[in-house]
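Colleagues,

For the teaching module next term, I've prepared a clean inverse folding example: a structure given as tokens, and then the sequence designed for it. I'd like students to try predicting residues themselves before seeing the answer, so please don't circulate the second half yet.
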């Protein structure tokens, strides 16, 4: 029986999506619940699983096309088996003299070389070539050791990269030929990257952004973490990070200065009597901001567990759109990449964003003595249309005071 494969229901407010890559080709056998194709929306990648065992009979929509919810994109023949090879003498290749194995020097060549052993799916090949990776350097967890999209995304998230080709002997400038390294590659923006660009332009055009700075001495927080990190992990099954301290400190500050937790709606200021904190997470596809709902009611352990889970699913493209929308205030941490100082951009329609940075030991005057202290620069960018400098600066000072004396967070003072 022929079954129509349709685009799954898209998240609310999403009108269409992009069909990224088919994992199966016509004539190939598929198993029930096996992912047939990746479909990308503005924020997440949806999978389209096979409803039954069978054979993919026909693909009606090709890679890169725009699709809508419920649109028929393929036909599956339920219960059919993949066609067997034609009878006859199997094809044999003539023996050839052994030749030295050449190392692939480009992403495309590396991918082609890897396919001599195990084939790469279109989505895996695309990731390998776009990020200049050597497939042989990535551990495959799929069937028969094949690389999956998750394997490649995990490799990228951990900072993996293909080794650079060995340099060739120098040649005289007048005779040195043009190399492939000077070639240009034109790659269309992904739907998510285009949406990020659109929102950043919207933020710049629709808000009056101003950034204030301060610095925080992280001595007490670091001492607290060092003292209890092992017990915390044993008790809760998750590591005690810095983000839970910053989320708690931000919530206490926002309670004191609610306009910084507000958003704009036309000519109105919409005050929120709840604290949904968006936390920026870097993924191979771009920056996303999962939301901690009712962060004021969450414990340190709940914050760390929820963030770890959402960040992992965001990097794998498994997070839902509803988990990325509706925050009232955003925290971004450029310090994990080494950033010492920056001016974060507001996530509209929110009115402010907090920027964390790298912790560096610097000489500080403490009680009349110059001491080395672990310091972090903090930045708060705010919409000056509705937030005055007083509220923004006092919010930053409140966060600083909570972090320099963590007991404040426990006592909520």
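(Answer key — instructors only)
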């Amino acid at each position: 029986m022929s079954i129509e494969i349709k685009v799954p229901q898209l998240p609310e407010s999403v009108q269409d999506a992009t069909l990224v890559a088919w994992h199966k080709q016509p004539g190939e056998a598929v198993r029930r619940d096996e992912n047939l194709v990746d479909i990308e929306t503005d924020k997440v990648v949806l999978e389209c699983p096979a409803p039954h065992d069978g054979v993919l009979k026909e693909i009606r929509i090709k890679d890169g096309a725009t699709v809508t919810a419920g649109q028929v994109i393929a036909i599956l023949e339920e219960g059919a088996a993949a066609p067997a090879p034609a009878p006859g003498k199997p094809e044999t290749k003539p023996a050839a003299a052994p030749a030295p194995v050449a190392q692939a020097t480009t992403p495309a060549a590396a991918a082609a070389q890897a396919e001599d052993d195990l084939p790469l799916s279109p989505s895996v090949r695309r990731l390998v070539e776009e990020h200049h990776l050597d497939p042989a350097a990535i551990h495959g967890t799929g069937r028969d050791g094949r690389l999956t999209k998750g394997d490649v995304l995990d490799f990228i998230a951990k900072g993996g990269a293909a080794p650079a080709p060995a340099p060739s002997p120098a040649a005289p400038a007048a005779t040195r030929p043009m190399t492939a390294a000077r070639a240009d590659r034109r790659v269309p923006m992904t739907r998510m990257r285009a949406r990020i660009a659109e929102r950043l332009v919207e933020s710049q055009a629709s808000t009056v952004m101003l950034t204030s700075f301060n610095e925080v001495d992280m001595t007490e927080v670091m001492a607290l973490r060092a003292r209890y990190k092992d017990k915390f992990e044993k008790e809760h099954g998750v590591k005690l990070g810095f983000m839970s301290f910053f989320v708690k400190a931000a919530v206490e500050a926002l309670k004191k200065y609610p306009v910084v937790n507000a958003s704009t709606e036309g000519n109105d200021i919409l005050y929120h009597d709840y604290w949904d904190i968006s936390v920026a997470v870097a993924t191979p596809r771009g920056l996303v901001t999962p939301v901690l709902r009712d962060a004021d009611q969450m414990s340190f352990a709940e914050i760390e567990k929820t963030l770890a889970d959402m960040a992992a699913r965001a990097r794998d493209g498994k997070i839902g759109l509803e988990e990325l929308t509706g925050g009232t205030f955003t925290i971004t941490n450029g310090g994990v990449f080494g950033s010492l100082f920056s001016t974060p951009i507001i996530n509209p329609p929110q009115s402010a964003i907090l920027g964390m940075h790298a912790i560096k030991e610097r000489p500080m005057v403490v009680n009349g003595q110059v001491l080395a202290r672990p310091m972090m620069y903090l930045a708060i960018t705010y919409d000056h249309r509705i937030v005055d400098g007083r509220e923004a600066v006092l919010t930053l000072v409140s966060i600083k005071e909570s972090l320099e004396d963590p007991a404040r967070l426990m006592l909520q003072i």
